[in-house]
Amino acid sequence: TPTAVVIPAAGRGVRLGPGAPKALRALGGTPMLIHAVRAMAASRGVSLVVVVAPPDGADEVKSLLDAHALPGGPPSGSWGRTDFLVVPGGSTRQESVRLGLDALPPEYGIVLVHDAARPLVPVDTVDAVIDAVREGAPAVVPAVPLADTVKQVEPAGTPGEPEPVVATPERARLRAVQTPQGFDRATLVRAHGTVTDDVTDDASMVEQLGLEVVVVPGHEEAFKVTRPLDLVLAEAVLARRRL
Ligand code: C5P
């Protein structure tokens, strides 16, 4: 079954501080989005990448992808055996993913959704997700155990005010979820057409349909670049890879 990846890259990245949209910020001199597309194209199972650009930035993102294709290589819209498409995104991550899904040609039966903000995910993680979907799971998420204990609180009315703790889930049973998340296409399309609640990951929409979601091992290098400190870590990981 041909596999496509949708990369939502339309976020502003407000928590990272002022500047360009997060996906277009540089990491080792190359935009984060380019790293993310390369990470997906590294998997032999991936034949199409759909990048969901900032609503007013689709042309810029298209040029950027063409500029990072191999010189003298394949025609515009392709990096060797991986084709790419660019579509304008929406005002929420969920809407951006749906717009990416709408752009998929019919032959792609497996869809991965990968955050542009996770530029350094290793190819083994991508392959593990694809393999689990191929083996029949309707939804697959890579995840890692937590270092911190997590507490559920009653959010304070005023920022900075102490917040009462409501519960402490057993840490050994918790996982921090990463991307790419992999899906049987029809399942993901149904989830996006049914669930309207605000969600932070695609798999939770499939859970809301009552379908099983399974976890495969993620990787510490698949962390999300969200705050300024994450950029420092990402630069260090890249530098280590280049040794
Ligand atoms: O904000 P957060 O880090 O959760 O964003 C995750 C991913 O969703 C990022 O790659 C971001 O660019 C993308 N996104 C999007 N459209 C939005 C908001 C976020 O494509 N409106």
Write the layout of secondary structure elements.
Blueprint: E1 3-8, E2 26-27, E3 30-31, H1 32-41, E4 46-53, H2 58-67, E5 78-79, E6 82-88, H3 93-102, E7 110-113, H4 123-134, E8 139-145, E9 152-153, E10 165-167, E11 175-177, E12 181-184, H5 185-194, H6 202-208, E13 214-217, H7 228-241
Parallel strand pairs: 1-4, 1-7, 4-6, 8-13
Antiparallel strand pairs: 2-3, 5-6, 7-12, 8-11, 8-12, 9-10
The structure holds cytidine-5'-monophosphate.
Q: First CA to last CA: what distance?
A: 37 Å
Give the ordered list of helices and strands.
EEEHEHEEHEHEEEEEHHEH
Proportion of residues in helical segments: 25-40%
The CATH topology is given as: Spore Coat Polysaccharide Biosynthesis Protein SpsA, Chain A
Bound ligands, each once: cytidine-5'-monophosphate
**Strand count, sense and closure of the main sheet?**
9 strands, mixed
- Give the name of the CATH superfamily: Spore Coat Polysaccharide Biosynthesis Protein SpsA, Chain A
Overall geometry: globular
CATH architecture: Alpha-Beta Complex
Write down how many β-strands occur, each being a DSSP E stretch of 2 or more residues: 13
- Secondary structure tally, helices: 7
Integer count of domains: 1
Which CATH first-tier class would you pick? Alpha Beta
Strand content of the residues, in percent?
A: 15-25%
CA-atom Rg in angstroms: 18 Å
- SSE-based structural type: alpha/beta
Poorly predicted tracts of residues: none
Q: Overall mean pLDDT score?
A: 94
Protein name: 2-C-methyl-D-erythritol 4-phosphate cytidylyltransferase
Enzyme class: transferase
Site (Positions MEP for the nucleophilic attack): 171, 224
InterPro entries: IspD (IPR001228), IspD/TarI (IPR034683), IspD/TarI_cytidylyltransf_bact (IPR050088), ISPD_synthase_CS (IPR018294), Nucleotide-diphossugar_trans (IPR029044)
